[in-house]
Amino acid sequence: MADIRTPLETLQTIQGRQFYFKDDPERLRYGFVAQELEKTRPELVRQVADGSLAVSYMDVIAVLVECVKEQQKEIEALRKEVDELKK
Asked: In the chain, where are the structural domains located?
């Protein structure tokens, strides 16, 4: 087990998309294209029983959580700097 390294860098390589599934053309969906994601972050893609690729959204969520935590640290550091400048 290891910490997620460079979560913001990982997030910046992911392109969100909106799309329709072939079998449900009426419902607009949001997500990622596994074939695109596989090029930069193959660890976030899995192969399903029929051989097609699927995004491992649980893994993407973990990266997103670490991004939020990393950004929160940056926000807190900036707030502290602003407070010191105001004094």
From this structure: 7-86
